[in-house]
Fold Alpha/beta fold hydrolase.
Amino acid sequence: MRGRTGVVLCHGFTGSPVSMRPWADALAAAGFSVRLPLLPGHGMRWQDMNDTGFDDWLTEILAAVRELQARCGKVVLCGLSMGGTLALRTAQVHPELVAGLVLVNPSVMSTRFDAKIAPLLRLIQPVLLRVLPSLPGIADDIRKPGVHEYGYDRLPVAAGLSLQAAWKVVRRALGEVTAPVLLLHSIVDHVVEPENSAIVLAEISSTDVREVLLENSFHVATLDHDAELIVAESVRFLDRIASA
């Protein structure tokens, strides 16, 4: 039954598959068919991200979903941070492809100052990118000492504006999400505000929803103290989806 259930794992903004690798390996060892794509513009130089945007990242995830769908009866998306945004958007535009969602610290908004003035920044984007192509990075918000996700040390501005525009689209359509959802979120997160998970839980239309608090991890919980809890909860969720 597990081999007939596909899992696509989506890493976060400026991150890489490194942040999801232990989770992916654990699910593969449990017998699930797993894909962990590298999103366009990620994993090399931060400058590469300014030539990509949310639609490019979504296209990469959809390709992985369709590839697994062709040989698996069901496909579940697991997303960290922006990976959760991508998972939610996939469930909105292609509900027929998504049997369930596992979201870890998903993002659909931000109260950061740069997010609030994003519409203005988009108006001056050509000039802005010449003088300010990047901002300080957001990688490695991990409570566990000595652990690194190997994300970019800079936040590419053009790519960030693309994500902020996508947040609005995804948030407006949260009510279109009907797939079963397992949402795990950190109590202390220095990257994605706790309001994000509350908004997702309040606005999706899914009736099969489980919320799990991660008490010992920061943002990149997949590499933090609660990593084993994430694996255990997701395996239980996937088994239930597989047998439904």
Q: What stands out?
A: The mean pLDDT is 92. The two ends are 11 Å apart (CA to CA). Strands lie at 5-10, 33-35, 74-80, 100-104, 134-136, 154-156, 181-186, 209-214.
